[in-house]
Amino acid sequence: MRVKAVVEYLGTAYAGWQSQPEQATVQAALQDALSVALGVTVVKVEGAGRTDSGVHALGQVAAFNVPDDTDLHRLRASLNGITARDIAVATLEKADAGFDPRRDARSRCYRYTLVCGRPPSPLLADRSWHIAAELDRALLDRMAAAVAGRHDFSAFRAADCESPTTVREVASSIWRAQGHALEYEVRANAFLKQMVRVLVGSQVEVALGKLEEEAFYRLLGGGSREDAGPTAPARGLTLVSVDY
After folding, report:
1. Please, are residues 113 and 236 in contact by the beta-carbon 8 Å criterion?
2. Residue 207 φ then ψ, to 5°
3. Contact 189, 171 (CB under 8 A)
4. Whole-angstrom Cα distance, residue 242 to residue 90?
5. What residues have CB less than 8 Å from 9, skipping those under 6 apart?
6. Is pLDDT of 32 > 90?
7. pLDDT the model gives residue 105
8. 32, 52, 126, 227: which one is catalytic?
């Protein structure tokens, strides 16, 4: 039986989603837990996105195969009893036999959290980027609005990104106040490696007066990674949801 899981995790203690030798990863933790719960040696878990080291998730989607007679309610309880408290399997449900959480995804939504213009928040220390200065909200809103649509994001990706195409369709891109934090939420058909973090770092760079606003807009038409702003820290990023 093919199973679809929605997984939440605090990524602070993990070297990202994807299994790596001698590194703690979310994928490996889930595979180990499934092996114990099902009493088998290896269970292959596939994910919708390879979140980087320190990145969190509210709605990572994973898929794996289990025996046809598996009680999914009991399996979910077992997995949440085996994994550490920073990983939770929120839902488990039967999926189509060919379900692929990465290739079948139609869009993904990410959220980046800033704490700015005030002291750092202890409650958000592992889940936000602290900026001491107050940021111009109107300026941030203009830049976020410009990100929406179809653009060449070649300047807004990791230097080692190997994607053959750099054009992406962004369905929504907004900043919103959430308590004493600012949240940037962006939804697209797909993302380049570190694309959201570079977009945030570049917008903050403009808001701090270190990068021209017009330069940011020009880079949405393509450009060099060296001309964009810094990559925002991983701890502020959360994979919110994956749509199918």
Report:
1. yes
2. -65, -25
3. yes
4. 14
5. 26, 56, 57, 60, 86, 87, 88
6. yes
7. 97
8. 52
Residue 143, both tokens:
């830049």
**Averaged pLDDT score across all residues of the chain:** 96
Q: What is the pLDDT of residue 179?
A: 86
CA 128 – CA 115 distance, rounded (Å): 6
pLDDT category of residue 42 using cuts at 50, 70 and 90:
confident
Helix axes 137-147, 195-207, angle to 10 degrees: 140
**In 3D, which of 232, 27, 23 has the Cα closest to residue 130?**
232
Q: Is 96 a catalytic site residue?
A: no
7, with CB counted inside 10 A (0-12, 13-18, 19+), is: buried
The answer to whether residue 243 scores a pLDDT higher than 90 is yes
DSSP state of 221: B
Whole-number Å distance between alpha carbons of 191 and 34? 29
CB 156 within 8 A of CB 195: yes
Q: How far is CA 41 from CA 63, 104, 120, in A?
A: 17, 28, 44
Long-range pairs for 113-120: beta carbons < 8 A, 24 or more residues apart: 113/178, 113/181, 113/182, 113/183, 113/184, 113/236, 113/238, 114/181, 114/182, 114/183, 114/184, 114/200, 114/204, 114/236, 115/180, 115/181, 115/182, 116/182, 118/180
Listed range (41-45, 117-121, 130-134, 208-212) with the worst mean pLDDT: 41-45
